[in-house]
Specification:
This protein is mainly α and 130 residues long. The protein has five helices and two strands, in the order E-E-H-H-H-H-H. The chain folds into two domains: 93 residues, Histone, subunit A; 33 residues. Helix content is 60%, strand content 6%. It has a two-stranded antiparallel ribbon. Strand 1 and strand 2 form a beta hairpin. Helix 2 crosses helix 4. The longest helix has 30 residues.
Length: 130
């Protein structure tokens, strides 16, 4: 079950962190530069992550087709990552979905282009030797 941290902020209101802190700790410790993690840093990282995910979801919902369907879809998220400069760093993590047949066709075309380039390079080398 997810770790829940309940604390009080400066105003005395309760705040809740709903992401599992144990997982966040594991992710943070996976970095070789990190030896120990302060509990406060862990909670703040969790809260910042929650706010980031909320902002990404809200932005994607407002700028995507999900508004019409009243649902947030993967394609909304991937379009946001691809089109928004703010979220451009997520483009590799949230790629657009394509059919396997289209992907295989793209791979075949890429191989053919590389073979043509290699053949042209060999032809150029042969002509240079003559």
């Amino acid at each position: 079950m997810a770790d829940m941290v309940v604390g009080k902020d400066k105003c005395g209101e309760q705040r809740l962190v709903s992401l599992p802190l144990s997982r966040i700790r594991v992710i943070m410790k996976s970095s070789p530069e990190v030896s120990s993690i302060n509990q406060e840093a862990l909670v703040l990282t969790a809260k910042a992550t929650e706010l980031f995910v909320q902002y990404l979801a809200t932005y994607s919902y407002r700028h995507g087709s999900g508004k019409e369907k009243k649902a947030l879809t993967y394609s909304d998220l991937s379009n946001t990552a691809e089109e928004s400069e703010t979220f451009q760093f997520l483009a590799d993590i949230l790629p657009k979905k394509i059919l396997a047949s289209k992907y295989l066709k793209m791979l075949k075309e890429k191989r053919e282009e590389e073979e043509e380039e290699n053949n042209n390079d060999e032809t150029d080398d042969d002509e240079a030797e003559s």
